[in-house]
């Protein structure tokens, strides 16, 4: 799943080397925490959060029913 997120996010930003993804597994699911360079934050979130919502939609669809746990994607500063 990390590879999918990287594949989507890195072309969007000016500093792809600063893209970091951390995975936290909890009792209610797996949370992927995405962090990018502060100047690229707006590009990842998009106007009114449309880009972020689209990224989440693709990630959740890819996880689908193949995962036993629910997948979450957080964009952190």
Automatic annotation (TrEMBL):
Keywords: Cell shape, Cell wall biogenesis/degradation, Chaperone, Cytoplasm, RNA-binding. It holds the Pfam family KH_KhpA-B. It is found in: Cytoplasm. InterPro entries: KH_dom-like_a/b, KH_sf_prok-type, KhpA. Transmembrane segments: none annotated. Belongs to the KhpA RNA-binding protein family. PANTHER family: RNA-BINDING PROTEIN KHPA (PTHR34654:SF1), UPF0109 PROTEIN SCO5592 (PTHR34654). Forms a complex with KhpB. This is RNA-binding protein KhpA. It comes from Rossellomorea aquimaris. The lineage of its organism: Bacteria, Bacillati, Bacillota, Bacilli, Bacillales. The gene is khpA.
């Amino acid at each position: 799943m990390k590879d999918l997120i990287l594949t989507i996010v890195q072309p969007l930003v000016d500093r792809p080397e600063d893209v970091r993804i951390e995975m936290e597994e909890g009792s209610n699911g797996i949370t992927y925490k995405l962090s990018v360079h502060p100047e690229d934050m707006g590009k990842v979130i998009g106007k009114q959060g449309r880009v972020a919502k689209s990224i989440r939609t693709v990630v959740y669809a890819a996880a689908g029913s193949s995962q036993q746990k629910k997948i979450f994607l957080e964009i952190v500063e």
